Amino acid sequence: MRRTIPSTMALICFEAAARYQNFTQAAQDVNLTQSAVSRQINLLEDLLRQRLFERVRRRVKLTAAGQHYLLQIQPLLESLEIATIRMPEFQTISGGINIGTYPTLGSRWLLKHLMNFSTEFPDINTNTITYLDNKQFDHNMIDIGIVQGDPPWPGCQHDYLMPEELAVIISPKLLDDQKIEENIFSSHRLLQHTTRPQSWDIWCQSANVKKPSPQNTLYFSQFEMIIEATVSGHGIAILPLVLIERELADKQLILAHPHIAKPKSAYYLISPSTKANTKKVHAFRDWLLSQTQSP
Fold first, then answer.
1. What burial class does residue 158 get, using C-beta atoms within 10 Å of its C-beta: 0-12 exposed, 13-18 middle, 19+ buried?
2. Cβ atoms < 10 Å from Cβ of 295
3. Which of the four, 94, 135, 143, 169, has the lowest number of CB atoms within 10 Å?
4. Rg (CA), the chain
5. Strand, coil or helix: what is 137?
């Protein structure tokens, strides 16, 4: 079936004429004669069965139909131009790559890997784009990113990156040389991530422990804030171990319970299907997977 699509030259002439409101200036812009521009616009009007311009003295003015059509085709022309400009980079391991990540995971785990990646691939410039939850993953902006959850992700290819290990964490400041008991959960404020409301349920079910009923709970939108609040002794929290390696090593934080939950949901690398097969995305994916899955 033949598509009802005008020629790109007709669209370019129309957009230029609408921008200048003058066929002569439009012709200079697209490097054609004025008569050629008029002919292209006439062909477009015939296809659309609509008048797109009306003449006002020596200038032209968009009709209501012309204004409506311009609004429809301008973003399409811009997208086509961007896709064409980027196409030469498709099979080259160079240029820029936008990497998506959660803020705390980016600063505490991904950053060290990005530094090493840039050393091995100096021709690829990395740019990080952060989001607080998976709904904010922008397919147009991000080439490849890290998400936590369960596949599939519509419109994306995914690769298993690493498991998530969840533990109940407390500051030694709250213990006062007391032994860690199960009732420690109910005697301290809980610190909760707003986009991970099931964390306590997941851990308690995995540990076969009754979910605590604290006097109050503080909610935070970022793990970085929860970590700082826990270090300061403001409560206990469920935290991914990958985010607190430094604090555990320095004894600023300790396990409030020996059990570590390993839920089915994990960290994945995902890439929009339209970008997943570019060489620079392949290079980053293969390199990062080799760093996390090597013995």
1. middle
2. 2
3. 135
4. 28
5. coil
